[in-house]
Records
---
Amino acid sequence: MVIVGGGKAGARAIVGLRGYGWEGSITLINAENLMPYDRPPLSKAAITDEAEPLPTSLLDLDMMTSLNVNHMRHTSAIDINRGSQTITLSNGSKVLYHRLLLATGAAPRKIPLEGGERALTLRDFADARKIRHAFATGKSVAIIGGGFIGLELAASATKYGCKVTVIESQPRILMRGVPDEIAGHVAARHASAGVTILTEVSVVQINPRSVVLTDDREIDAEILIAGIGAAPRTALAQKAGLAIDNGIACDTKMQTSDPFIWAAGDCCSFPHPIFDNMRMRLESWRNASDQAVTAVENMMGASRDFTAVPWFWSDQYDLSLQIAGVPGLGLSTVRRNLRDGAFIVCHMDADGRLVGASGIGRGNTIARDIRLLELLIGKKARPSAVQLSDANFQLKGLIKTDIAA
Amino acid sequence: MTKWIDVCATSDIDAEDVMRFDHGGQTFAIYHSPDGKFYATDGLCTHEKVHLADGLVMDNIIECPKHNGRFDYRDGSAKGAPVCVNLKTYPVKVEAGKIMMEIGK
C-alpha cells in the first residue's frame, strides 16, 4: 500500500490500514521533511502561543516504527505509471504499488497582481512560523479574504497588537460559509477586538508597505496575507490521466477513475449519497480523516460508500463556530437559541428536510446540539420548527425514534 | 485513606447525560448512564484536552465535542482514532440521593 501525502488523511490512512489488519508494507510519500502533523493549530496556537511552537504530531517516530511504515520524507511523487503500477519519486527512485491512496491536499491560491508574491499564505508549519514572526513585529497587517483562514489569522494578529484590516470583495465576510446572522456575530467580535473589516472592495495595487483598493483607499499593509481559498493539488493525478472534476474525481467509495487508486481529503471531489449524490469537495479536518478511513477499508476489498455528514469548525477569539451538513442547500432557517448567547441556525430544504446546521458560541456551547443535528441530517430527518427552536426540546429523542424519510 | 467527595444530587444529571465537576484544582466529568448508574472520569479528553462535559453521551459512550474521540465512560477505554489513550476513571457511589466520588491522593 502506498500513500502520497503526509497530512491528516495520509496519517489516518496508515492507522486505518493497520487497524483493519493490513500486514503488508505501507509506504508514505511525504513532501515535507517532518513527521505528519495536525494543521488546525497553524492559524491559532502555533501563532499565538508564547513558546515557540512545535508541530502537533499525528504520528511520531515511535508510532511510525511500531506501525512499520516506510516513511519517505522530503520526497515528492512526480509521476504515476498506472500500467506498471509504479510511482517515480523526486529522488529518481521508483516505488511499486498494489493499491495507491492520493492525499495530496490543496494549495493556497496566490494573488494575481504585481507584487502579489509578497503576500504570505498559510498551509504548512513553515508558513505558520513565518506568519508568527511577522506578527511578532506588531506591524500593520492586511488580510485579503474574509474567509475562515483570513479571520482566524486576523484574530491571532490582534494578540500581537497588530493593526489589522480584512479586505473582503463580497458584501460580507464568510459569504459562502455561514448565514448572515452568524457572520454578523463574528464581524462584531472582530470589531470589538479592533479589526477593521472592509467589504465589497478588492485590492488593485500592491505597494511595498500598503495596498490600494478599488475605491482608491490606501491601506497599511507592512504584512500582507492572502486568504483567498485553496485549489486541490491535482497535478500528479492529472498527469496520470485520472478524471478530474474540481479535484481528483472519486466515486462514492473514494475510488478514482483507476480501480487501483483512491483519494481522500482536500484534493478530491465525490458524490454525496445523503445529498442526492451532489458532487462536492470539502476542505476540513474531519472530512480528511473520515474519507481516509473509507478509502483504506475499500482498498482492502470492502465496498463501502462514504456517507459522513460534512462537519467543520473554526475558532476565533473565545468563539467557536461549527457547521454540519450543507447549509447552502437550505431555503429556510430556524434559529435555536442556547445559553450564554450561543445560537444555532438550522437550514431546511423545500421539503422541510434538515440539510445543515451552523452555530456559534463561546467555547464548546454549541457542540452537543450541532452533533445531534449532524446525526439528524444524516438520517434525512424532518424535525419541526417548534422542536428545533425550543432549546429545551431534547434532540436526542429524535435520533432514537426512526424518523428517516 | 479513601475520601468520598460530594459531587451533586442524582437528580442534577439527566439520564444519558454528563456534567462537569471541579474539585481541588482538578476537573472531572460525571455521567448518568441510560440504565441509571453513575460514573466519573477525568474531565479533559486525552487527545487535546477538550472538556468532555460539552460532549454528547450516547448509551455508554462519551464523545469529545471537538474531534469526535469516543470513550466508554464506564471503564474509560478509548474507542479508536483520534483517541488512543484511555480516560482515567474514578469510583462513584450514591448515598441518600447524593453522588459521591473518590478522587484519591
---
Amino acid sequence: MNDIAQGLWQALILVVSLDADLVEITVLSLRVSLTATLIASAIGLPLGAWLAVNRFPLRRGVIATLNALMGLPPVVVGLIVYVLFSRSGPFGVLGLLFTPTAMIIAQVIIITPIIASITHQTIRELWSEYRDLLISLHTTRRQRIAALLWDGRRALMTASLAGFGRAIGEVGAIMIVGGNIDHATRVLTTAIALETGKGAFDMALGLGFVLIALAIAVNLALHMVSNTERGARW
Amino acid sequence: MVATVLPLTLEEVTLHRNGRCILGPVSLEIPGGGITVVMGPNGSGKTSLLRAMHGLERINAGQVRWSGETERVRASQAFVFQSPILMRRTVVDCIAYPLRLSGMGRGAARTLAAQKGAEVGLADSLNQPAHVLSGGERQKMALARALIRDPQVLFLDEPCANLDGRATLDIETILTEARNAGTTLIMSTHDIGQARRLADRVVFLHDGKLVEEARGASFFAAPKSAEAAAYLRGDLLT
C-alpha cells in the first residue's frame, strides 16, 4: 500500500515538474501507438466491413482465424518482426530494427486483428439492418462498405480505441524490436519494465499511473470530439 | 420523355424456401400506370412476389422481364418496406442518400431532400435523427427516400401496417399523388378497405398461387374465385 502511495506521489512529481525524460517517453509512446492505431484502423475497418458484407469460400475459416489472432502473443510478433528486420533478415537492408518504425510495425500486426474483428461484428449487425435497403438501391460493394462504416462510425471508434488500448499498454514486442534505447526507443511500458527490474518500484508505479492517465485522456478526448454520448440514440 | 420500363412480365415465377415452394408458378403482366394491389391472407406470398419482382429474392424458376436494359430498369424502381429501414443519420440525410449514390453533391442532395421531406409533412423533423420519428413519420421518410429519384415503379410492402387512421390517410394521400404524377405503384396489403380505396388493379394470391387478377372495381364488386370471395367476406382462409 505504501508503494502505491509513493507511486502516486512520484507520478504527481513527474507530471507537475514536467520531467524532461517523462515528456520524451510519453510523446514517443503516443506517437508510436497513435500511428499504429491509425494504420491498423485504415486496414482493419475496411477489412472487417468487407468480411461482413461478402460471401466467399472459407469465409468462416477466415473470420475464425481473425478472431483467434486477437490473442496474438506480442512476444512472438516481436520475435518475428525482429527476425524479418535483423541484418540477416529479408528486410534488414531497411535498417529499421531498434527504431520507432519497427515498434509501429509490430503494434500494427498485433492490433489489426482486434480492430478488424470488432469491426466485423459491428458491421455484420448493421448489415443485417441495412441489407434490403442497400440491395434495393443497387449500391456497389464499395458504396455499401462506405455507408456501413460511416453509419457505424461511433461503434467503430470503440474498435479503434480497443486497438489503441492494446498498443499503448504493449511491452513484449516493442521491447524486442525497439530495444528500450534511452532517448531513442524508450516508451512508458518499456521504462516501467526497466524501473521494475532495477527495483525502483515507486518510479515504475509512477510511470504506470501516468500511462493509465494517458490512456484515459486519449479515450475521453476522442469521445468528446465525436460527441459519442450526445448521439447515443444512434 | 423517359422510356418506360413497363410492362413488367412474370413468366412461371417460382420461389422456394427451405425446400418448400412458397410462391408460384406465377405468370402475370403489370402495365404502366395506376396502383396494383397484391392481396391475400398472411403467408399467401405477397411479400415474396414483390421482392421477386424487384430483384430482392433470387427466383428458382421462371422469368421476371422488364422493358429496357438492366441499368435503366434498376434505376427506375424503388421499394418501401413494411418496417422502414432507418439509417443512422438525420431525416434529411436519409432522404438524400439515394441522390448521393447517384453522384449528386451533398448540398444539392440535401436541398432536394428537404423539399421532398417537406412535401410528405416532415418539414419540422428534417434535422432530427431518423430513429426518433414516430411510426407514421418513419414510413413518410421511407416514402420520401423512395420517391426522391422519381422512380417509374414504386413497390410498397404493407406500407400502412401498424399505423393509425391519421397516418394511414397521410400515406395514402402521398401514394395517390405519386400515382397521379405518373408513378406506377405495386403494393401489398391485407387491409381490404385500403385496397378498395386505392386499387386500380388487384392481384389476389392464396397459398403462393395467383388465384385472381382483375380490375379493382370488378374484383370488389364480383370476385370470380371462391377464395377471393371468401376473403372479401371476411371468412378465414386456411
---
Amino acid sequence: MLPVTYYLALSAVLFIMGALGVLIRRNLIIMFMSIELMLNAANLAFVAFARFHQAVSGQIFVFFVMTVAAAEVAVGLALIVTLFRTRHSVDVDDVTLLNG
Amino acid sequence: MTVQLILFIILALVAVATALGMLLSRSAVYAALYLVLNFATVAVFYLLLNAPFLAVAQVTVYAGAIMVLFLFVIMLLGTEQLRRRHTLAWQQPVAIGLGIILLAETAYIVLAQRGLVSPGTTEIASITGSPTEVGFNLFMSYLLPFEITSLLLLVAMVGAVVLTREEKKK
C-alpha cells in the first residue's frame, strides 16, 4: 500500500479546487458541483484512513456522506430551479433578496 | 509497489486535471462532464484502497445518479445562453489569492506531518471492505444511522417536490 500521506495530499488538493470553485465561479450550478468535489475529497480521505487503520467504519461513513450528498443535490437543484423561475438567472450575484 | 505508485500518479494527474477543467470551463455541461471523469478516477482510488463496494457505489450514485441530475437541470434551465456579468470586479483575484493561501497552509501541514505518520501496513488486509463486510457493519453497528438515512432521503424527496411544484394562481 502507498503511504497514506499521498492520498491525503491528493484529497487536500481536490478539496482546495472545490473551495476555489465556490469562491471563483458565480454560476450557482458550478458552485454546487464544487461542493460535490469537496465532499468527494473528504470521502477519499475517509477511505484512505479506513485502509490505514484497517477499520471498515471509515467506509461506512463514506456511505453516509454519499447519502447526504444525494439528498443535498436533490434539494439544492430544486432550489436552483425555483430561483431560475423567479429570477431567470443562476448567477449568484443576482440572488440578493430573500423575497421571491 | 512501483506499479501502484505509477498508477497512483497517473490517476492523480487525471483527477487534478479534471478538477481544474471543471473549475475553469466556461460551459456548465463541460464542467459536469469533467466532474464525471473526476468521480470515476476517485472510484479507481477506492479500488486501490481495497474498498470495492464503495467504488461501485461511487460510480452508480455519484457518476451516475447525481451527475445525471446535474446535467438534467443544466439542460432544463438552458443557462448556457445567458450572458456573463461581473458585478464584483475584485472578487475573482481575491478568491484566487485566498485559494493560494489555503493551498500553502495545507502543503505546510502535509509536509510537516511527513515523518509522523507511518506509511501503513503492507501485509494482506484483515479488513477487505467487501460488500459482505460493509453490509454486516452497516446493519449491525450502524443500524440506527442507516434508518435515519432513509428518513433524510424521504425528507429530501418531499422537499424537492414541494420546492419545484408550480404555484397555483391565486
---
Amino acid sequence: MKEYRTISQIAGPLVFVEKTEPVGYSELVNIVQADGTIKRGQVLDTSDELVVVQCFETTAGLGRDSGVRFLGETIKMPVGSQMLGRILSGSGKPKDGGPEIVPEKRLDIGGAAINPYARDTPRQFIQTGISTIDGTNTLVRGQKLPIFSGSGLPHNEIALQIARQSKVPGSTEEFAVVFAAMGITKEEENQFMQDFERTGALEHAVVFLNLADDPAVERIVTPRLALTTAEYLAFELDYHVLVILTDMTNYCEALRQIGAAREEVPGRRGYPGYMYTDLASIYERAGIIKGKKGSVTQFSILTMPGDDITHPIPDLSGYITEGQIVVSRELHRKGIYPPINVLPSLSRLMNLGIGEGMTREDHKKVSDQLYAGYAEGVDLRGLVAIVGKDALSERDRLFLEFADLFEDRFVRQGHNEDRAIKEDTLDLGWELLATLPEEQLVRIDRELIHKYHPKYRKKAAAESGTSSATASDLRSESM
Amino acid sequence: MVTAVDLDAHMYDVVKVGHEQLMGEVIKIQGENTIIQVYEDTSGIRPGEPVENTGLSLAVELGPGLLTSIYDGIQRPLEVLVEKMGDFIERGVTAPGLSHEKKWEFVPVKKAGDSVGPGTIIGEVQETNIVHRITVPPNLEGGVIREIKTGSFTVDETVCVLEDGTELTMMQKWPVRVPRPVIEKKNPDIPLITGQRILDGLFPIAKGGTAAIPGPFGSGKTVTQQALAKWSDAEIVVYIGCGERGNEMTEVLTEFPELEDPRTGKPLMERTVLIANTSNMPVAAREASVYTGITIAEYFRDMGYDVSLMADSTSRWAEAMREISSRLEEMPGEEGYPAYLAARLSEFYERAGRVETLNEDMGSVTVIGAVSPPGGDFSEPVTQNTLRIVKVFWALDAKLAQRRHFPAINWLNSYSLYLDSLHDWYDENVNPEWNRIRIWAMEVLQKEAELQEIVQLVGSDALPEEEQVTIEVARLIREVFLQQNAFDPVDTYCSMAKQYDMLKAIKTYADRASAAQKAGALTSQIVAIKAKNELPQVKFEKDYKPLLDKIYAQMDAEFNAMKEA
C-alpha cells in the first residue's frame, strides 16, 4: 500500500494531503506518526489535487513528516452473533479485555435507508412499567422516542428503568440491548455498567463507550457502529433490539466542532446546516421490515442546553423522532420520580399500539381525559397564584386537586416499580378520573364510562355479589 | 456534490456519475467545471471516474399506471426497488416510473380526420375506478388524426398517428421544473369540502387554492393532513412525504390501501399517488420530490380533475435547498437559506389553481403545504415567505394539542381569504343562514378569548351574568363543534349538513339562554341545562337526527319549566 508523505496542512482534526492518486470519498485512512503509531481517519473531501482527511483521534503528534495510507474501503463494522455481552470502545475496539470480534459479516456503517415500502407499521405495544409512558405516551416496537432532559435530571435512571423493565406482555421472543454512550463521564459509565451487571442485562447487551475524554470525532461514528450492530441483530438474527443512545447533545457538539474545522458556513447557533439530514441518518435507523422477525427500537437521550426545547438539537430531533418524553425540572424539584411532564411529551405512534386487542379499549380515551384534566388543573394553578384558592368555583377546585393527585399518584412511582398496563396504569387513571364529576369526562363515551368508571364497577361488583376486591383496594396493597 | 470537467452539459441536465452510474443533476456551470448534485450517497467515488450526460432535464413519466403508485423523490417506484435490491435502498439502481410491460385498454374518443391540438383528450383508459384521459402532450402542435387505434397497448406503443406522421403513445414525459400550460386561471369559488368542521366551517379552502399548515412538532399536523387526504372531495390525491419519518410514511403506505373511499366504496389508493422521500434518503431527491409531485398533479388536472396535493413538509424541502446551496458555497440569505428561497416557494405555490385546461375543461390543483417552523417560531423565513403567498392559514397550536383538543387548529390565529368568494356557494348549497351563523360563532369565540383574559385575573364568578353564558356557549362551540376525533369511525367525517345542524343547535341554546336571561332566569340555571350535555354525543352518531330532535325537545322542556318557575 502506498504511503504518502505529502501532508500540506493540519488544522484541528483535519489533515490535508496533496498529490495523491484518485482516492474515494469516505474512504478509511491510516495516518502513521513518525514513531510508528497509527491513527485512523476518513476522507471528507477528495479531488485531483487535495484530499481532506478527518482524523478520528487527536492530531497531537502529527506533523508533515507523518505518512498517510488510503485503505481503499469505507468504514465497515465487523459484526457477529457473539457480540452480545461485549463492551467496545467508541470506534468498535474491544474494551473489556476480551478477544477481537470474529466477524461473520462486515457491514457499511453508513447504513442504507430502509425502503419505506419495505417497512412494516409498528403496532406492538411495549410495556415499560412506567405509567406516564405506558398510559399517556405509549412506546411501540420499531419506534424512535427520545428523552428530552436537562443537566442534573435523572434521565439516566429513567433510561435504565426502561431498559430493565421493557417487555411485550405475553411474549417470549429474544431481545437485546445495544447501548451507545457518546461523551459521557466515567461516573455515568459506572452507573450504567453497574446496573447492567447487577441486573444481568449485560448478557444480552452490546455496549459502545465513547467517554468524555475520548476524541470528539470518534463520537460521529459511535452511534453508527451501534446502529449497524443493532440492524444486524434485528434483521439477520431476529432479535428485538432496544438501542439506547446517550447523549445526542454531545454528538451534535462534535458535529459542530468538525463543521467549524472544515470552515463550513454555519447554520443556526453554529451547528452545521446539514444537521437535520445527519440526525435523520441516525434516528431513521429504527423500525420493522416486512417479513423480518426482529425490530429496532430507539431510545435516545439528549440534554437540552438551558432546558430550551427550541434549541436546534431538541428541535431538529423532535422533527425526526416519533414524539418525545420530556423530563421536567419542576417535577424533579418537587421530588417526583420519574419527573416526566406529560403535557409536552408525545408518542406519535401511540394510537397504533393501543386499544382493544393490544392494551384495552378505553386506553386512548382515558389517556386523552387524563391529559385534558391535568392541563386544565395546571392552568388553574396560575390563577390560584393570583386570586387564591377560595375564588375558584367548585368545578375548578376539583380540577386543581386532580392535577396534584395526578402528579402524586400517576406520575410518581418507584425506581423498581413495574406497573402493568391494565391492572395498574389504566385502572389508576380511572381512579383519579373518578374524583372529577362524571359529566366533566367529555372525552370518554358513555359506554366506556359505564364499563370502567370505578363507581359503576363497584355497583356491578356489588350486584353480581362477587367478593372480589375493587380496583382501588388492590392498588393500595401494591403501593 | 461532484465536479466534472469538460462535460458538455446544460443547467438541470440529468447525468450519470461514476462506474455505478449514480443519478445526478447539473446545478452549476463554471467554466469547464460542471457541478453536479448527486441524488445518492457518493461514498467511494474517486476523482477520474466517468460522468455521462443524458442531455435531458429531470422529467417524470406521465401515463396510465401512475395511480396507486408509491414513488421516491425522483419517481422511482419503491415497490419495484424492493424487488430489485431488497429492503434497503442501495445505490445506482434505476427503475422507470411507469410499467412499460403492462397493457392498458385504450378507448379512443376521437376518430380519424378529427383535428387535435395540444392538450386535447384523444382517448380514455379505465385505470382504476378513475378514468385516465389520454391527451396530446402540451408541447406538441397537434394536427389532424390519420389513424387512431382501439385495444390493448403498453405505454410505449403508438395509439394514434397524425397526418404529419407524429406518433402518439399513452405516455408523455414532462420536465418537473416547468409548469404545464393552461388556457386560463379562474377564480376559486367552490370550496374543497374536507369533512373537518373547523376547516369547512370556519376556515374553508377553495378548489385550486393554497393553504399552509404550520405547526410546532407534536401539534397534530400529520394527522390533520392525513384526514384531509382521506376526506377531501378532490378526485385525485397526490401526497408528498418530503423528508418525512419512515414509520409515518409506512403508516400512510399501509393505511391508504386499506381505506375505503367514502363515495365509491373502492380503496382510496385507487385515486392516490404517493411520493415518499424519508428524511434519511438523499437530500437532492428530497429537493426534487416536490416538483415531481406537482407535475403529476398538474397532469391529472389537465384531464379535468380536481386534484389535491399535500406537501409534508415544505420546510424539509427548504432545508434541502439550504443544504445544497451551502455546499455550493452560495452567499446565504436569512438564517442560511438561499436568497432565492422566496422565489422558489412562490413559483411552487403558483402552480396551484383552478384552470381552464387546454382541452377547455375545468380542473384544479389545490396545494396544502405543511411548514415546520423550528421551535414553533413563525417569524422564521420559510413560514414567513409561505404566508405571503398562501390564502389560507391553519394555525396548529401545540397548547391545544397538549390539552388533546384535536384538530389542534387555533381559531383565533387561523384565517381564510376565500370566505368572500365562497359566500354564494354556502348560500346556495348549505343554508342561507350558514354565513350568518359562522360569523356569530367566530364572534363568540373572539369574545371568549377576551373574557378569558379577565377570568385569568379575577376568576369566572366575577364576570357579569350575561358573559358567563357567553363563556358556556363558547365552551360548547369548542368542545362540540371544533373538537373532532379523527379516530372515531363516525366523527372522522362530518358533512356540511351535519355541521350546519350542530352549529345551529348550539346557536339555538345560546338564543334561548339569552332570552331566558332577559326574562329573569338565573345564570346558574341556564348553565345547568342538561339537554346541551348530550350535544357531544351527536358527533359520534351516524344517524344523529333523532338524537338531535330529542335534545331540542328536552331543551324546550327545560327552558319552559324555567319560564314557569
